[in-house]
Amino acid sequence: MPCISIIVPVYQAEKLLPACVESVKKQTFSDWELLLVDDGCTDASPALCDSYAGQDPRIRALHQPQNAGVSEARNWGLREAAGDYIAFLDADDALEPQALETMWHLREQTGADSVGCAHRNVTPAGDGGVELLLPAGVYDRQGILDGIVYPLLGERLKAPVFNGFIWRYLFSNEILRDKQIAFEGAYLEDELFLMEYFCNAQRLAVTEEPLYRYFWNPASATHRYMRNFEQVFHRFLERKEAVVKRYELSEARPQWRENTNWAGLLIAVGNEYAPGNQKTLRQRQKTVEALCRQSEMAKAIASYLPEGLSTNKRLVAKLIRGGHFFLLTQMYRIKNRL
What we know:
The protein is α/β, with parallel strands linked by helices. The protein has 13 helices and ten strands. A hairpin with a 2-residue loop joins strand 6 (114-123) and strand 7. Helix 8 (229-246) runs antiparallel to helix 9 (256-272).
């Protein structure tokens, strides 16, 4: 049984997958298995997955008959994973050669059930700098709550926002299976996975060494217009409510719902004015106005004043609170050249 199972969801990644897989094969730590989960690809990715599996017995190719989304791909990987620990890797990213060895040894040295690292942002123009997870150290139960769970719960507005990236960690497979923690949906799925997992973790070791290379892709799903964002966000909020109740988190951040609704609203506004939206500017403005009138959003807008926002988001929030939707639309028209 391998020490670490690395799960890679693969979708239309024929040009990017070779570098990703090579970064795993070059690891200084050799006791791993790599699960390449073909999510119904129609390019050459399935053949590439099979080829890699044929070359190395530590690599397995799993083929979904049709595209089911990144969450289901990761869930299938979790069901098949034989390792004691789980790492996630995206097909367009890469691990530094010493990533697994560093994290595995840190876990052994500290007796932690989970390990986290910094990552390096790589933009089309070059190096985008290093982003820390947390300061290096060993975090106990309260430290995990303060450093990860509570920021994910009710601090989604204050810059710098804690990012819910799942690929910065080694997760205990025992915890994941015992608590039946899994993914759902195609957006914000990482945040809830992390929240629930770290409600159950007891000890986290963190290094400031950037062991993961995140390639920022402006064409990725995170940066495209989402036609069904409103429904996706409502489902996210329902699932977040369930986690909050299950682990009795409300007392720690009583205004988590208002904070989360504001965060979702700011994302929804940016999404509505994304260049890929085919609606007219007038239609987009009406959609934003209707969203702000919904009971939960209206309550958050009236009762909660976001703090610590970036300059752009602060301006958007001010226009929303003042009901200046025409000005908001014109601002995005100029910004996005609509």
